[in-house]
Design a protein that fits this description.
Layout lengths: L6 E11 L5 E12 L4 E5 L6 H9 L6 E6 L2 E5 L4 E2 L7 E4 L11 H6 L11 H14 L15 H14 L4 E5 L7 H18 L2 E6 L2 H7 L2 E6 L2 E6 L1 H6 L4 H6 L4 E11 L2 E6 L2 E5 L11 E6 L5 E3 L7 E12 L4 E7 L2 E7 L10 E6 L5 E4 L12
Parallel strand pairs: 3-9, 3-10, 7-8, 8-9
Antiparallel strand pairs: 1-2, 1-4, 4-5, 5-6, 10-11, 12-13, 12-15, 13-14, 15-21, 16-20, 17-18, 17-20, 18-19
The chain binds adenosine-5'-triphosphate (ATP) and magnesium ion.
Magnesium ion binds next to helix 1.
């Protein structure tokens, strides 16, 4: 495989008109730069525009505005009337359904993209390429089978082999793992990541599964109603979410709403109905008087039977304590404040007990409350 392709998207917009005449902004001014050989995951809830974005990159759908460069070449540019057809873009796409031809053997399915004139291969060359692709995905023995005779996982490998056989340097994946059970899915995920690293193609992968996104991605683009809410490494997205929407979408989070009463030397104090919450995490753009939300991850909290020496602490009752093997998950309540806490220790604390729940100021993040942008403010 040659050099993987970078993707550069600027000012992309796409609107659909529904049957009732209302308009939907499926892509709302998206700028996105995917580097060569990167594994980028588009993550967001159903209907946020992931598939539409993928299809416009592939050329299966045309955007209203904007520009798409792939491998340094302009493939779409609304202003100049550029719209290269999909087969010229050197891209493979793997769909949720795999889209295998049911009447064709595994060999024929995989060989299919090579039949086009673009490749100009002899029959022997086609046989070699198909054989190599099936070996790469670990199913050389299945060449004669038909798709209906394969497991979900095997079908996925055939789809991947079909993408690999063209030696395309950009592969787009639209939720390809959603049809297989959890265990197989986990296994295929690891394999896919290894294969992508070994072969070096650029991957753009759509999912609404955050675990899948965290595991696969070099960077995650969190999509919110057609917009990119944040684009960053899994670590950045998890530990420095740019908004409440991102914080809520990735992983579990504890929240307390309040108002900023002081900001001094990097310490933000938030007045809440449950007392003052102190944060020492950087919080750009936050001013005294702002309506905010203080957030922390369940694994950063503590539960103690004696009063701890931490700025943020509450007397709470343990509502549930669930041992899940690697850690225990606690649901705690302090008045009308609900908090979740995960701890690898403290297996001795049981439901019904009174404890102190606390969190260090450096584990608390302060973000704008952003009621108006569609994030529900109700608990849960
Ligand atoms: N052909 C179409 N005509 C009208 N509206 C459309 C069309 N295709 C998609 N939409 C709308 O555009 C929005 C984005 O759809 P899209 O399929 O990109 O979402 P998605 O993020 O892939 O969702 P899912 O996770 O459910 O697959 C949705 O509101 C959808 O109803
Ligand atoms: Mg979709």
């Amino acid at each position: 495989m040659g050099a993987a392709l970078a993707v550069d998207i600027a000012g992309l917009e796409k609107e659909y008109r529904r049957q009732d005449g209302t308009r939907v902004r499926a892509i709302d001014h998206v700028d996105l730069r995917v580097e060569r050989g990167e594994f980028v995951v588009l993550l967001g809830p159903s209907g946020c525009g992931k598939t539409t974005l993928l299809r416009t990159i592939a050329g299966l759908e045309q955007a209203d505005n904007g520009r798409i460069d792939i491998g340094g070449k302009t493939r779409f540019w609304s202003e100049r009337g550029v719209a290269q057809p999909p087969e010229k873009r050197g891209i493979s796409m793997i769909f949720q359904s795999y889209a295998l031809w049911p009447h064709m053997s595994v060999f024929k399915n995989v060989a299919y993209p090579l039949q086009s004139r673009r490749h100009k291969l002899t029959r022997q060359q086609i046989r070699d390429r198909v054989g190599a692709a099936l070996t790469q995905v670990g199913i050389p023995e299945l060449t004669g089978q038909y798709p209906s005779q394969l497991s979900g996982g095997q079908q996925q490998r055939v789809a991947l082999a079909r993408a690999l056989v063209s030696q395309d340097e950009l592969i787009l994946f639209d939720e390809p793992l959603s049809n297989v059970d959890a265990k197989v899915r986990e296994h295929l995920r690891v394999e896919l990541a290894a294969m992508q690293r070994a072969l070096g193609f650029t991957a753009i992968f759509v999912t609404h599964d955050q675990t899948e996104a965290m595991e696969l991605a070099s960077r995650i683009a969190v999509v919110d109603r057609g917009r990119i809410a944040q684009f960053g490494t899994p670590h950045e997205i998890y530990h420095q979410p740019a908004s409440r929407y991102v914080a809520r979408f990735i992983g579990a989070i504890n929240e307390i709403e309040g108002r900023v009463v002081s900001i001094e030397a990097g310490t933000v104090v938030v007045e809440t109905d449950h007392g003052r919450v102190v944060s020492t995490q950087p919080s750009s753009g936050i001013l005294v008087g702002d309506e905010v939300v203080a957030l922390w991850r369940p694994e950063r909290g503590h539960a103690d039977t004696v009063e701890p020496d931490r700025a943020n602490r509450w007397r709470a009752v343990v509502e549930t304590a669930m041992f899940v093997g690697s850690h225990t998950e606690f649901a705690l309540r302090s008045g009308d404040l609900a908090a979740r806490l995960w701890s690898p220790r403290m297996e001795s604390i049981a439901a019904g007990e009174q404890v102190w729940v606390s969190v260090d100021p450096h584990d608390v993040q302060v973000l704008p409350r952003e009621d108006s942008t569609g994030v529900q403010t109700a608990e849960g």
